[in-house]
Amino acid sequence: METKKEYKIKKISDYIWEVPKEGDMKVPLRIYASEKLLKKIKEDGSIEQGVNVATLPGIQGKSIMLADAHRGYGASIGGVAGIDAENGFISPGMTGFDINCGVRLLTTNLEHNEVEEKIQLLLDSLFQNVPAGVGGKSIFKLTKEELDEVLNKGVDWAVEKGYAIKEDKEHCEEFGRLKQASSSKISDKAKDRGKHQLGTLGAGNHFLEIQIVNKIFDKGIAETFGIKKLGQVVIMVHTGSRGLGHQVCSDYLRRIEKEHQDIVNKLPDKDLAYAKAGTETANDYFKAMCAAANFAWVNRQIITHQIRRSFKELFPNSELKLVYDVCHNIVKEEEYEIDGKKKKLFIHRKGATRAFGPGREEIPKDYIHIGQPIIIPGSMGTASYVLIGTEKAREETFCSTVHGAGRNLSRHKALEKFRGEKIRDDLEKRHIYLRAKSWKGVAEEAPLAYKDIDEVVKVSHEVGIGNLVVRLVPLACVKG
Amino acid sequence: MKFKFLEHTADAKMQAFGATLEEAFSNAALGMFNVMLDTSKIKQVKKHLFTIKSENEESLLYDFLEHLLFLIDSEGFLLSEVLELTIIRKKALTLVVRVIGDNHTNQDVHSYIKAVTYSEMFIRKEKGKYVIQLVFDI
Question: Could you tell me how many CB contacts below 8 A there are between chain A and chain B?
Fold first, then answer.
């Protein structure tokens, strides 16, 4: 078992807790959780990781852990840190290995019953068109030049090639392209890992899910997102930058370790390794991270293209529209007011979703008056949510909110406890249909291995850092 | 015992053992693949030989395992056994390794390791035996 340090935790309100600044901490740690979720967070030693982040030079305001926080490497998952972009640093480990792991939601003009009637055929088609699992190979053979274009242009490349429509691009965070991206900052090794993986789902907690609108909390906002009524069918895709992104993170962690042993040796945890802002290493990492993020958007876009093909085969009049595409492992340069002064910060969101309120020009034109959609994927067989960003999130959490349910039980224990085929049968009794590459993988991802998503999003709503709009429940799921 | 798995909520934590550092490294590789699938079911048909150079033991372990992850994505290679592993100690450390396995087709790969991490990593000599601890990001 991990040895856990005990921390004094002060209650600020029903959903906000604080570890006050002490010792090496430069700022306090704030935890946004219900009492029940805080209890879970305390168990796995992740608070120590949030405290470690609070000791780093250049951290502003507070170290943040959200309701879905759990133990990660270096920084916890479900963590947010705003670091001075001029005198602070940028950290690959605090961004995460799966750069721009994210989620997108598509609406359809179809209803529950008509899709359930053809669900097996639809799953067959999706399972064939969207490669899943370890080694699931892309339908594309990209040349080196084409891969560079994907990395540099993001979804713009997909629009050029006919894999995306203009509206898709407009409904992605950053419009599907981080302009600072430079493919030249990505190693050949990373490119070799990614070149067969464009348009593939991968494994683990990544999925493609057909869902049904189950509850509408805010009718007006839901309608603006194209979610019109209960029983409407929507589609959710959860995946990231695959091996390419993982290699980019690894490459830069190792480069920092080699170039800046002085910094790394002083850190409480090597995975917190950072490059000082303004250095060549920091700039190179940022450009590489942006390129990997672009790759992830194109990955989700190609999957979308394939989903549309599958739907057209079975439902010729179907229309699939992208509501939004969010990142939940990323570092962004954003501006905030700190002690009355405007400051540029590197906002590290590692398992956290941006939650911009209304009026921000980064939000698509058709949503700018209401705020940014936040897509929260559940785990297999459980609910998912759409929330809306708020002005309050700027004051509380550097415009951030939760990203998912977060695990409750280790994979190891889940494998002992559950059987994939049994989970499939149980889900089918509830009219939830499953296709997977590995039944053991399904057991590892058992619904009961995750925290209660309803409780997690309730915290965001109660604190006001992401308000409830729609609750979605699964009809069918494709897993790696 | 070659390796054992430990409790970790979200990722995979393990320890690997060996009478020598080389044996512990080999068992760490085997353990890593057993997080993803049952390696006893992998045929021995494809060989890879490679060399890794690193500044210290921990980074050598990191780079070695990371290269094996790279081979999964780039070549579809899944490891069955480490045939030979040598560590040469000069100013830097050099690891030369020969591994055997198969490509991923028809294997039940139940989870996928995204990356090797330094989190909770140690390489220790306890009672004359090498113990390696690792956490993988899944």
Answer: 123
Between vectors from CA A257 to CA A27 and to CA A280, what angle results, nearest 5°? Answer: 85
To the query of whether residue A403 is one of the catalytic residues in this protein, the response is: yes
Structural contact between residues A49 and A64, judged by C-beta atoms closer than 8 angstroms? no
pTM of the model: 0.97
Domain ranges of chain B: 3-137
**Region for residue A407 given its phi and psi (left: phi exceeds 0; alpha: psi -120 to 50; beta: otherwise):** beta
How far are the Cα atoms of A198, A427, B120, B123 from residue A2, in angstroms, in the given order? 38, 34, 9, 17
Which chain A residues touch B93 with a CB distance below 8 Å?
none
Name the CATH superfamily for B3-137.
Archease domain (3.55.10.10)
A249/B115 CB distance under 8 A? yes
Helix (H, G, I), strand (E, B) or coil at B111: coil
pLDDT of chain B along its 138 residues, tens only?
Answer: 999 999 888 889 999 999 999 999 999 999 999 999 999 999 999 999 999 999 999 999 999 999 999 999 999 999 999 999 999 999 899 999 999 999 877 688 888 899 999 999 999 999 999 999 999 999
CA distance A79 to A422: 34
Q: What is the ipTM of this complex?
A: 0.95
How far, in Å, CA of A298 to CA of A177, rounded?
9
Contact B66 A250 (CB under 8 A): yes
Give me the number of domains chain A comprises: 1
Which residue in A206, A246, A403, A461 is the catalytic one? Answer: A403
